[in-house]
TrEMBL record:
Keyword terms of this UniProt record: Acyltransferase, Transferase
Gene Ontology MF: a single term: 3-oxoacyl-[acyl-carrier-protein] synthase activity
Protein's recorded name: Ketoacyl-ACP synthase III
Species this protein is from: Salipaludibacillus agaradhaerens (Bacillus agaradhaerens)
GO BP terms, alphabetized: fatty acid biosynthetic process; secondary metabolite biosynthetic process
Domain Beta-ketoacyl-[acyl-carrier-protein] synthase III C-terminal intervals: 239-328
Alphabetical list of InterPro entries matching this protein: ACP_syn_III_C (IPR013747), ACP_syn_III_N (IPR013751), Thiolase-like (IPR016039)
Domain Beta-ketoacyl-[acyl-carrier-protein] synthase III N-terminal residues, every copy: 112-185
Length: 328
């Protein structure tokens, strides 16, 4: 029986690091003290593009090349390229088309972009795993998630401007006869908060017609912790139907949006720190790729070994929640 394993993962971020002091001073000049907010979100540093040469696409290409090099592969070894982003550099053509060219992939490689907001890369990995498993002619897929978040972060609002970082992660999935690989996934969607986070605020048609602005994400106040109760239920369901408990999972690679949510998750499942991957203090919130930044650093620090159970979880605007279970 074939399984779909994670062969390798790589990340890329710009060189420019910005620490909390910059944002504290920035919002102090607006009469706001954001120190409690930064502690709540768990921020210390983040990497921000500060030049005209980099963007979400260039970050994705760099991450993809690094992943291929680590895996000892070339673009010709891929059967599928999926690009997850909520800040695409182009809509015509797909961003995946540029990645295809940059890594010299073959003509019969499937390429497309996907967008499930911050849940996007986890969704894309899960979907690609299913596709590989169902197609006897396919062996490998590259899934790359990249968000140029600072491009559309509002300098007047700390929730985006002081919270986000720029970065990309690339994962290579490979078909194997080994016993490890993708196991199961689960989702929960509640569209009640669909209008709380929007870009463009009034829609693309209004922005392009010049009747509305499209400079920054519009983020209306709401309780982001609303996603946690259904998260607990879905994770418990996912584990139970695979005869596992939370203690069987070696590493939880969760959305790095808010440290407070991760702490709620940790408390609910009674997990020690060794089972939680937290890197939001290091990279800021990188959006779609954030669980895979956590996964990458856990591997780098030898906190995960082959054969360990790993659970990815993320939440997207609207809101949608997704979890994917792997035996690495």
């Amino acid at each position: 029986m074939d399984h779909i394993k994670i062969k390798d993962v790589a990340i890329y971020h710009p060189d420019n690091v910005v620490d909390n002091n910059f944002y504290i001073d920035h919002f102090n000049r607006q009469g706001k003290d954001i120190r409690k907010f930064l502690a709540h979100m768990g921020r210390e540093k983040r990497y921000i593009i500060n030049n005209d040469d980099e963007n979400g696409l260039t970050m994705a290409i760099n991450a993809s090349k690094r992943a291929l090099a680590k895996a000892g592969l070339t673009g010709r070894d891929l059967d599928m390229i999926v690009f997850s982003t909520q800040v695409p550099e182009t809509t015509f053509p797909s961003n995946a088309m540029y990645v295809h060219d940059a890594i010299d992939a073959s003509h019969d490689t499937i390429v497309y972009d996907s967008n499930a907001n911050c849940a996007g890369m986890t969704v894309a990995v899960e979907q690609a795993a299913h596709y590989l498993n169902s197609n006897q002619y396919m062996q490998r897929a590259l899934i790359v998630g990249s968000d140029f978040n600072s491009l559309i972060s509002n300098p007047q609002e700390e929730i985006t401007y002081a919270n986000y970082g720029d970065g990309a992660a690339a994962v290579i999935l490979e078909k194997t006869t080994e016993s490890n690989g993708f196991i199961d996934s689960i989702s929960f969607n509640n569209s009640a908060t669909r209008d709380k986070i929007k870009y463009p605020e009034s829609g693309l048609s209004q922005a392009l017609r010049g009747t509305a602005e499209a400079d920054y994400i519009k983020w209306l106040p709401f309780d982001g912790a609303v996603c946690m109760p259904p998260t607990f239920d879905m994770i418990e369901t996912l584990l139970a139907r695979n005869n596992l408990t939370a203690k069987d999972i070696k590493m939880f690679c969760l959305s790095q949006f808010a440290l407070s949510n991760i702490e709620k998750f940790q408390q609910h499942f009674e997990l020690d720190d060794e089972r939680i991957a937290y890197v939001g203090n290091k990279y800021g919130y990188t959006g779609t790729s954030s669980p895979f930044f956590a996964f990458h650093d856990s591997l780098k620090e030898a906190r995960i070994q082959r054969g360990d159970y790993v659970l990815f979880w993320s939440v997207g605007a609207g809101f949608q929640v997704v979890a994917a279970l792997f035996k690495y």
